[in-house]
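So, can you check this one?
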Amino acid sequence: MTSSNTPNSPAPAAASPTLSATEITTPRLRLRAAHDADRAGLIELQTDPQVRLHLGGPRPRSAVEQYFDARDVAHVTDQPGTFVIADRTTDDLLGVLLINRRPADLPGHVSEEGGELELTYVLRRAAWGAGLAFEAATAALRTAASELPDQPVLIVTQTANTRSLGLASRLGFRRVGTFEAYEAEQTLAVAGLHTFSV
C-alpha cells in the first residue's frame, strides 16, 4: 500500500499503532478474545435497555441474534485493542472493552487530524457497582502505556451518563468540552497515556 503523505504530514489514523496485547489479566478479570460461549452475554449487552440507556437505546433482539447467526462470535474481537471482559475464575463474559482509534470523521477530538486513542467499555448490568470497569480500564490503559508512545487518550460519553463520567474522573481523565451527537450532549474527556505507566 502506498501513501501520499509527505514526510512532515501526520500519519493517517488507520496507520497509527494500537494495542498489540491479546490478553490482559487483573486480580479479578481476564481481558481476552471472544469465543462461542460469549454469545448470550454479547446479545444481552446489545439488547438490555439499562445497559443501552446512553448508547442509543436497545437494539432489537432478532436483529442482534441474526448478526451473530451470520458471523462467528470471535469476529467481535478481531480488531487489535478489542477485548471481552471476563471473570478470571469462571470465564463468564462481563462486558467488552476497546482501546482503538477514534475515527477522524466523528466529532470529539483534541487534535486537528483526529485518530486519537479512545477508550470505550460496556458492562452487563449484573457486573455494575463492583469496580470492575475501573479495574479493566486501568489494566488496559497500563498495557497501552507500556506498548505505545505518550499520546492523548479520549473518553466520549453522553453528559447524562453520570456513572461513566465518574469513572472517567476516577481514571484521571479531565473534561475538555461537549458537543452534540446522536441527539444528545456528549462530553469529551482526555488523559495522557503516560499517566498510566506503572
In short: Helices lie at 39-47, 61-70, 132-147, 162-171. The mean pLDDT is 91. The two ends are 36 Å apart (CA to CA).
